[in-house]
Every structure is written in C-alpha cells, then in structure tokens.
C-alpha cells in the first residue's frame, strides 16, 4: 500500500478553495492546504494498515466462551461525500483452539478499518472477516452504530438519526440465542 501523498493533497485543497471563490493566498488560508494534508494523513492512516496483522499474536488460553469488547468509539469518513461518520463498534467472538487475542487488538482492528474512505457496512464486515480469517473462532459478531454527517449537516438533514449494522459469522449466524446474548450485553 502506498504512503499518503501530502503535496498532492495540498494542491487539491488549493484548487478546491479557488473553486469555491476563495483566495488561497489570503493570510488565514495560507497554511490550510498543509493542515488539511496532515489531517488527511491522520484520518486515512488505515490505508496503510492491515487489520489482520493485529491478530498475528495469540495467547494459548483455553477459553471457548464469549468475549465482547463493546462501546469502541470510532471516526470514519463516508466514501460518498468525504464527511465524517462516527459512533461505536461492538466486537464479540468465541475463541477456538486456544486462539485468544489481546483485547486491544479488537479495538485496533476497528480503528485501522475505519480510517479509510468507508461505508459502515464494509467496516462491520471487514472487522468480522479479519477475525474469522486469523483466529478461526466458533463465531464472530460485530455491531456498529453510527451517525453520518452526510445525513445530518447536508442532504436529507436528519440529525440524531442512527444507522446500525451487524455482521454475524459462525455460531452467531446459526444460533439466535447466541446473538441475543450479545445484543443484551451491548445494551446493558
Ligand atoms: N449504504 C450506505 N450508504 C451510505 C453510507 N454513507 C453514506 N451513504 C449514502 O450514500 C448515498 C449516496 O447517494 P447519492 O444519491 O449518490 O448522493 P447524494 O445525491 O449526495 O445523496 P443524498 O445524501 O440523498 O443527498 C446516500 O444515500 C447516503 O446516505 C454508508 O456507510 N452506507
Ligand atoms: Zn455520505
């Protein structure tokens, strides 16, 4: 994956400022292209990260019961409008064959996947599939709830509306009570 091209972003930001009728050489805007490029480097950091790498290290712990990390805050950028959408992700899995991951790695995977131009559905599915691929657990369930600024500050303008997506794999796809347990723990 290529590194983020800061000078190219700076040029693009200058062009946008000109296109909206601004003067990029006025004092308040002089450093704006540089600031935006630096910000994009940060908010799109996930372009250079592979969420699966976080699951390379596993602990050989014999725990084949539910693990849930809930309320993981995330910020992402809607790929249609390049404005933020943000909320919480909840990641549950049931380990198998001693493949238990560090709890922070679940949050790191969310972070890496969110920091790209994204769709909420794709964040949800990509995190679930990374865990399936690397840990081969009994099941994975990822629930994401988010507010999309493209639906609040512009367009349909529905502030407060929330989108909830889920991805269920393995036992969670087959067993309603396993899904219900996770949902009730998320709500509690
Ligand atoms: N499925 C999905 N849609 C999204 C997500 N983020 C934004 N969108 C939607 O992407 C759609 C883009 O629709 P278009 O008709 O191409 O663009 P638009 O004219 O700007 O649409 P409006 O937002 O309705 O004004 C909109 O309906 C957005 O609400 C997301 O994460 N998942
Ligand atoms: Zn959007």
Automatic annotation (TrEMBL):
Q: Which UniProt keywords apply?
A: GTP-binding, Hydrolase, Metal-binding, Nucleotide-binding, One-carbon metabolism, Zinc
Q: Which GO terms describe its biological process?
A: one-carbon metabolic process; tetrahydrobiopterin biosynthetic process; tetrahydrofolate biosynthetic process
Residue intervals of the GTP cyclohydrolase I domain: 9-186
Q: Which reaction does it catalyse?
A: GTP + H2O = 7,8-dihydroneopterin 3'-triphosphate + formate + H(+)
- The positions annotated for binding Zn(2+) are 78, 81, 150
Q: What Pfam families is this protein classified in? A: GTP_cyclohydroI
Give the record's pathway.
Answer: Cofactor biosynthesis; 7,8-dihydroneopterin triphosphate biosynthesis; 7,8-dihydroneopterin triphosphate from GTP: step 1/1
List, alphabetically, the SUPFAM superfamilies matched: Tetrahydrobiopterin biosynthesis enzymes-like (SSF55620)
Family listed: Belongs to the GTP cyclohydrolase I family.
Q: What is this protein called?
A: GTP cyclohydrolase 1
The organism is Cytobacillus horneckiae
